[in-house]
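Open question from group meeting: does this chain pack into something compact, or does most of it stay loose? Before anyone orders reagents, we agreed to write out a predicted structure and look at it together. Recording both the input and the output here so the notebook holds the full record.
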Amino acid sequence: MELLSPAGNPELALAAFDGGADAVYCGLSGAFNARMRAENFTPETLGKLIRYANENSKKVYVTLNTLVKEDELGTLFETLTTLARLHPDALIVQDPGVVEVAKKYFPELKLHASTQMGIHNSAGVEAMAELGLSRVILERQITLDELREISRTAKIELEVFVHGSLCCSLSGRCLLSGFLYGQSGNRGRCKQPCRRRYTTPQGEGFFLSPGDLCATTLLDEFKACGVSSLKIEGRLRSPDYVWKTARAYRILLDAAPGEVHEAHREAENILSSALSRRKTLGFYDFPSRRDLVDSRISGVFGTPVAKVEKITRRGILVSTSSPLHLGDRLRFLPPQGGDGDSFSLTGMESAPGVRALKVKAGSRVFIPGKFSAGAAWQLLKIGENGYDFSRHAANLPPLRYPLDLEIDFCSEGIEVRVAGHTFSRALSFAPAEKHPLGKVEVEKCFSEGVPEPWRTGNISVRVDGKFFVPAAGLKKLRREFWEEIAACLSVEEYFSAHAEKMTAFFEEVTQTPASSVPPYVHDEAAAFIVPPFVSEGELGELECDIEKAYRSGIRRFKISHWHGFTMLKAYPDVQVSVLFPLPVCNSRAVKLLKEQLSCSAVEAAPELDDAAFSALQKRSDIAVFRTSEEHPLLVTRVPLTEGKWHDERRNRFEVRKNRNVYELYSLSKLEN
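Structure tokens returned:
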């Protein structure tokens, strides 16, 4: 199983690799990734990391996992062009429009379904396979029993979270941050309102703030399920956290049968020093979901180390409850809970003008700087000094561009095709008596000795026949090939195809549908609605309900999640429309749903503003509509107290149970 760690910047990536991760996932700055508050990567630093990973048998996955508005499609294409040049091992995607553009224009890029797609049953996994994705990152609220059932029929790779923060809401279903603060979690800017205090019929507390996931005891279960990748959450965490979590899980994965007990003890010791919230098994142990949230505990990550006594123009005076050391990462915590600013501790004064390297618990210390905080605010430690990978990151090798090779060998010679060029040699190879030429041997040889600024990407090898090629002769062919290619292939020529693709894309995306689009007619009585959350155990019942509806004459079906397409494959004559929470924000998403899944109408994502909705409608050749139906702001399997809620800013809500989930609805707009 692959161990996959977070990388909010190059230093975190190197910390993960040093700790033992096989792969990292990261995002480009300002480019459609769900952790926009992380430092993230530039194309140059990402290219350097990908080269480093390639040369050290590691992998890099890039997150492109937020929703994309119509007027952002140009930027999306430019981002995909950049990524195609860098050739990461896969892209992690949420928006169906991103899937459509990537599959059509950049088929060389592998796609993984983000957990934000909310895939939570085998029918959803099958739908992703039908779309051509190679991996699904499963919803974090599935149980271990459900995972076992999903894995039995999965035809593509499965990835599961094993450690880190948990969202209270089902992935992709939370609108709370966007509703309260205009900062959408589906656009990478979640303000974490779930970590704040609420008043409910049960009393006052942090009822939406779960503990952190820690699945060290379930690795054998994941292995038995055939899980391909174990994912650690935490692109906003510090290098010490990333290194420690990667190291702990590496120890567990590498432990020999007789060393398991000692490995668990060592791993738990490491994890106990990695700052985190209260540890839980998440939703894997479904009965324990009632203990997932401890409403008495603020869900803000970090360990309290100091309290602010006074704010001045020069900085803050704090009293410490734990030791502090220069280099520690700290975060402010307002008294009402929530998300305060974080910073690195670069200076302290134990007395006016007296600098301190470290201070003990019970000290009063001045921290210079400009801070957005107030008296009585707490300081939390979110990272420790001593895990500095900045020098290593600064010395990463220059980026190289990948070349995909198609190599054909036969007894009469060799032909290699690369970027529109062909290298060939007519030769005569003798029949093999013992060691015929093999694909692995050819791939390994041609991936070496690559001249700057190139590196090998995907290598396809075909060996026709059983013949012998001496190692020296194979290396000579490789040298001749790379010398010829280096002399005739320039970076500008190599990327000329990308420029042609961009021209074609802009011509296509700016076209207005020639025919008028008929308006969408709301007729709930004549349609069968496939619910958005259907647990693995409920698929059989849903299948029977669909069959009964079809036999009764119903031909109109409304699908609100990906599993619906799999459930309706047996009924090709039905009319299908799409509802939220399957998100539609752009015309490329509409194109995919219409052409590949035969949809006749789609509901626009509710967080689209009027301008974005109008732009989407203009470019769609099927009906795009909004509904007056109220959408829940948060949907969860956590058993919430039903009834009226409110927060400290006088926002009023109501929790209702809907079949097997709990839904949080708004009763009022923000009043201040």
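Observations to bring back to the group:
The radius of gyration is 27 Å.
The longest helix spans residues 471-488.
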